[in-house]
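Changelog-linked ticket: magnesium ion example.
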Amino acid sequence: MRIQSAELRHLRMRLKSPFETSFGVELDRECLILCLEAQGLRGWGECVADRNPGYCYETTGTAWHILSDFMLPAVLGGETESPRGLRDALRGIRGHPLARAAIEMALWDLQGRAQGVPLSRLFGGRPGRVDVGVSVGIQKDVPTLIRAVKDYWADGYRRVKLKIKPGRDVAEVGAVREAFPDLRLQVDANSAYTLEQAHVFREMDLFGLLLIEQPLAEDDLIDHARLQAQLQTPLCLDESILSARHARQALEIDACRVINIKPARVGGYAEAIAIHDLCRERGVAVWCGGMLETGVGRAANLALASLPGFTLPGDISASDRYYATDIARPRFILNADSTITVPDGPGLGVEIDREALDQFTLRQTRLAAPLA
Ligand code: OSB
Ligand code: MG
């Protein structure tokens, strides 16, 4: 498939409520939206890099640079056979998985639309519903946190993830556990601790958590293995896993027992599927992480989560958990059984709301293939 042109936009969208993690507070979510055109079709991709390099080193600024100056020129006009062929087209460009994943998503969408097939089918999943939960940011105080969880419970979420950081951990999680004894509960530290603070996690071991996500540094598999050895609760890695090779090595040394698969973090859906396959072979549970995606990235994540190894609920909440207005239609709604229905239209299975897209666009650029 010859890619004729690319349109890249930088968006800013107001979050319905501020999202606080161990690395900072977000009031607005920024992202890039990419549209690739080929054979009269449009494929959409989302780059989930944020304005600030808090979660990872990429930002909307670095992704704009890498995409418009290097990655898109390498793809435009060339014969990119399939999303899986992107790796070859980008040989020679190191790193920047979030930028890479945006192009890959648009190629999957193009392929799905060209073949009239939903992404879930292209990925090897099945149509239907997937289990989801909600990720709750750090709140002002414990009563506010309890109220937030109560509201999400009332909305129908049956799995909750609490963000924690040093000093805002055992008391918070203990209070939520006491108020909601049956809730499927997990925590995410976004690498805010060191092994010297292992006692925090030994205390949390008593709360019956589904998992503890990324307690230690992203480049520290060894100390994660040391921590896992002290705990009953499975450790789950997010930031540490950038490829299927990392996943294999982490599992081999028992640095984690669950993996959060975020397609963007590993450079796209092909690598995400490879991690899923590896974990499934080994009987290791995986779930689909989130990056506060718009309806574009959310549609693709739902398709991924429809693969059989995704046995834990994903961080894929309903559209109205994040945004009053989204850029894709239809909006995703939570079913009564704490699931969301996987889109079944061709490609991503969502349509772009041009008006909303324009409303949130800070800047845009268009790149065309060199004349053949
Ligand atoms: O660590 O999982 C994370 C959001 C932004 C950056 C990192 C993370 C998150 C979330 C939100 O936890 C998950 C969601 O999209 O609902
Ligand atoms: Mg995480």
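Closing comment: Example verified and attached. The longest helix spans residues 97-115. The longest strand covers residues 5-21.
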